């Protein structure tokens, strides 16, 4: 707080009273608005409704009946489609079920139970009292952190800078500690801060020296084609790993959750030859095949990679007015103040707001009481522990622009109240 | 072999020569027939083609948009439908993805990583050098055994009698050995021998004393409504476990793999309150939801349990002529001989044949050379180890009746050749 003269204090009190009056007026409206999760809006989902009438034909190109058993690792047409889209070798892709999160969890579970490349299973470290660790660039995706927590993998937060994780910190940690077995990366339009990894960062991740032989990058390219304001390119991490002599270092995940239907899309993992062979072996005990009809449905809907990109341009048209609303409101109301800073995403699903330290929980709580649900404060940090109590993730996709306007007005009101309360020491 | 007079031996040799001549004639036909896996035929799959045009409406009864994120444990309509069909409490059901095998594996993987009810994780025993064990009624389903093998769970074969596992053996083993943590059961129309568990066996499984506090029954009711010749009822194992004071003893698995489309159906697990709460907790780290659109598709297709039963009557009409062909051929050609015995299934997908000891591998190999693929000999035993080398699983569902007739003629020819070879000591 420091020194504050009486006049300044009085001004702030008056301002706070005024804000409280506005807040009470809002409360009386009994609103129910939600900016908590990265859920597509119904209008976004409508863009994929043709899927509901597919497939028209249930035979694959080679004559296989997609209705029956078989094809563990996905239909060739689907591997081809996503290989084309992402610049991946179809032979190094496994098409899974409806959820890339599920594939990430299962990959982590496999590493925990079986290890990789002859190395010790990761769960064994835990049972012996020295659990393995993952680096978690922060702020990050809460569900990644929950996977680690569930599997008893210790998390070490590392700063996420404008072009990717702070590589000086990362390189030092992985070089020194052989218990650090992996790092979570959302390399494009990251959740929540919209960071896009630079080529230099990708190369460093692929080439850096690691104490652990079985160090793995969990490359969750969830927003790989989800550009809103600007198309951003991304260096191919698998190629880069191969080039650097670490062909098995990265697992590359992708899904159509935010391209078609979140619960009824298609997910994939791609990796080096040995990892893919290992995953297929484990999968062959786990299942006979994933849903080939749904894979075919997606292939028939998109036909080629170019159509996915066109589809995502329509998606961007839906999302842009919403991101405009959020970013303009923040700029108009909080720009130039010390109350908050925020990200300027080029794509993805989120705007990341940093309030003054110590205010995030208060803001989320105030917003909730006024009918606006936000992602829980702290959720973007491992163990929900945002030491500065500052980061809040805003998810603008689901509400309408009109709802967003109301929700943002309330959010900004709450940021102001919490900020002034703190300044006055009344909070 | 024992004693054999010259005349008898000469007769057998002449007969064998005659059989070889027939075999060579068959080989020249270059046939490619397959009785290896329990795959539905295209005509069976056609019965569900209407699914390809569903859902007509993507909102749930309560207004939820099934296209979007949410509902971890399955849509209420789907729980209701299968609850009705199987006499299960919808509140104790989790609807999963497309594969009950996947749910079984994931349940085993969860038990391995996390344990249950506060007991030690099963993988920890393995890392400590004393792996946990499962009882495997034999002959049984190869994919169950592969799950155990993959997870390092030791398998102990126990005899499968006409009304279920040999309960005297089972009860003794589980009472004495606390490392025995579970048993695989296919309680109706078992794979491969078509055994249906009696009420008495279900009660004993539910009530028996087990040394392991965390003993679990893996109740794979894969053929729960798959009657062909006769409707067989099955005592509700979950109710029985509850009644006997062991409410968390059984996991009940079911799927529509052999009701609608094998790779694009809906699977479920049901269990006691605590197990379901545990599984949901683990699942909540693993995924956001399974494919609700596909769940809805199935609900709209069937509407109610009675329609599933009617659907299965049509399925039985497809399968009955095929089972008739297999069983009649066996009876006509091998009935009253010492060359083979076989099961008399009332439903399910298989006929289990026991050749003379020491002949199964030879029969499968002879059949293969003549263009008929059978399930590998030994596959119906843990570690593929059929000590008697006697059991062969026949899967009649996929070929046409005409193809089956040819395939059975060849199979029987091979059984005869192998049997006589053995008698002559030439094999």
CATH class type of the largest domain in chain A: Alpha Beta
Distance between the termini of chain A: 12 Å
Decide which structural class fits the backbone of chain A.
alpha/beta
Bin the helical content of chain A: 40-55%
| β-strand amount of chain A | 5-15%
The mean pLDDT of chain A is 97
CATH architecture label of the largest domain in chain A = 3-Layer(aba) Sandwich
CATH topology (level 3) name of the largest domain in chain A: Aspartate Aminotransferase, domain 2
Total number of β-strand segments of chain A?
Answer: 13
Question: What does it look like?
Answer:
The structure is a homodimer of 427-residue chains. Chain A is an alpha/beta fold and 427 residues long. In chain A, helix 3 packs across helix 12, helix 4 packs parallel to helix 6 (142-150) and helix 8 packs across helix 9 (237-243). The first copy, chain A, has helices spanning 6-27, 42-46, 76-86, 100-114, 122-127, 142-150, 167-176, 199-207, 237-243, 273-286, 292-302, 305-334, 360-369, 401-424, and strands spanning 33-35, 93-95, 133-138, 154-161, 164-165, 180-185, 216-220, 250-255, 267-270, 340-342, 351-355, 372-374, 391-394. In chain A, strand 3 (133-138), helix 6 (142-150) and strand 4 form a beta-alpha-beta unit. The first copy, chain A, is globular, with a radius of gyration of 23 Å. Chain A contains 14 helices and 13 strands. Chain A folds into 2 domains: 6-44 and 309-424, Aspartate Aminotransferase, domain 1; 51-304, Aspartate Aminotransferase, domain 2 (3-Layer(aba) Sandwich), CATH 3.40.640. At the A-B interface, helix 4, helix 5, helix 6, helix 10 and helix 11 of A face helix 4, helix 5, helix 6, helix 10 and helix 11 of B.
